[in-house]
Amino acid sequence: MQFINRVLTTLFLLVLAASCTTYLPVQMTPPLSAINADGINKKPVAIAYLLPSVSKRLSFNQTSSYHYGILSHTLKLSPYRDSSPVFRKVLKNVFKEIVPVRSVSAAFDSSANIKYLISISDFKTHTTDFKTAIGYVEHYGQSVNQFDISFMCKIIDRNNSVVWKQKIAGYGTATDDEIVKGGANALAPTRALLSAFQTLQKKLDALEL
Amino acid sequence: MNKMNSFIKVVVIFLLLNVFGCSNKVALYSSEVKYSLPSPPSANETLLYLFREDTIVGGAIGLTFVADDTVVATLSHGTFSYVNLPADKPYEIVAVMNENFADPKYHFRLDPEPGGNAYVMWSNALGLRGFGVSAIDEGYAEKIIKEYGYRKLKIKGEKIGVSYNEYFDKLVTKDSSIPVIDNEKIIRNRPLYDASEEQ
After folding, report:
1. Residue A187 in domain
2. In Å, how far are A186, B42, B86, B118, B142 from B67, measured between CA atoms?
3. Under an 8 A CB cutoff, do B171 and A24 touch?
4. Mean pLDDT, to the nearest integer, of B115-124?
């Protein structure tokens, strides 16, 4: 009887813990106004960019290592979807003509002018810092105060040869005061993604093609 | 035993507050009507569907969706609405609880899809879909459109006088000129505002 009680209690606690797991959908699309073309000389190059709809649906979960009591928090991130507008904006700032394509082969079939194809991939995040924000537990559980993100950016030519490849990284922070103003858990990730794309724009601007 | 009774009372009060405890003006601003399929959006528009998760927890909270500076839906739990938005700019879609426009913590940046549809949902902490406003896929949206009620706004194009696009842009970029949101002013200026409610 005691054994059955223990099993039932364990099952109850497991179900309770699972039911208390919160999923925090974090959208980190940066404001496009923060990516300006000041000081950029547009390259007289037409370039295709690969950000297919399939990639937009990719997402990965970042599970917090911290648990508030029995609550656990999982960040749901969609880096491909969220970076799509800002990637387009960076390319528009740097290149004379940009053409969205859904596949590598389509890039070079679509126009004779297209000599290069640029793509981003392999999004990663390593140091999600959850801080217990007692005052905001009701709404946020915990606040994300630091966030880093990185991705690979690659340019290939018509022969499928890699002409440029770099890891681009960004880092963002958010204070509890900013979080309570409405930034919520997306603020540090948004700033991290913005910082990464500002870096990408600088690197592409300095690139000789 | 007394401690046990107190604990039970606290739990009951908490549950009642969650389910019934909040004021709600959903019926004032929108009404549930029969849904009919809208015309497809033009090439310069995005047809945005807005859903509120069907859960009784916090079910009495009034939820208002604002797209940048315009009220686009007022929903009770398990209902949805739609709006055509010009696809010329991204929109900060904010889910405001109980007319507290100064607390825009549930928000989603919509990248418009010219000539296409977009679907966003507000879900609460206990829902497995997540906590806040997030995009949902078309297949799931089509499924719940058949199950949820459709609420139509009584007044279309209501402006709140604050641009959430500007607010969040400046918050992200740490711009010190971030707009101050005067909630009382916004509520007083709402078309169906009733001063007698303040008595």
Report:
1. yes
2. 18, 19, 11, 13, 22
3. no
4. 91
Classify residue B199 by burial, with Cβ atoms within 10 Å: 0-12, 13-18, 19+. exposed
ipTM associated with this complex: 0.76
Nearest-angstrom CA–CA distance, B40 and B84? 9
* Domain presence at residue A48: no
> Contacts of residue A51 in chain B, CB cutoff 8 Å?
none
Chain B partners within 8 Å of A57 (Cβ): 137
Q: What pTM did the predictor assign?
A: 0.80
Q: Domains in chain B, ordered, with CATH? A: 21-34+42-190 (2.60.40)
**pLDDT above 70: percentage of residues in chain A:** 70
A183–B129 CB contact, under 8 Å: no
Question: Which of B109, B110, B122, B170 to mutate to probe the A interface, most A CBs <10 Å?
Answer: B109
**Contact check, Cβ <8 Å, B90/A190:** no
Is A97 a domain residue? no
* Position A63 confidence tier, pLDDT thresholds 50, 70, 90: very low
Mean pLDDT value of segment A48-55 = 68
Q: Does A114 reside within a domain?
A: no
Q: Are strands B149-153 and B30-33 parallel, antiparallel or unpaired?
A: antiparallel
Q: Are A48 and A107 in contact (CB under 8 A)?
A: yes
DSSP string, B19-64: HH-S---HHHHEEEE---PPPPP-TTEEEEEEEE---STTTTS-EE
| Domain count for chain A | 1
Closest-CA residue of B relative to A85 is B111
**Structural domain span for residue A173:** 22-41+59-79+119-206
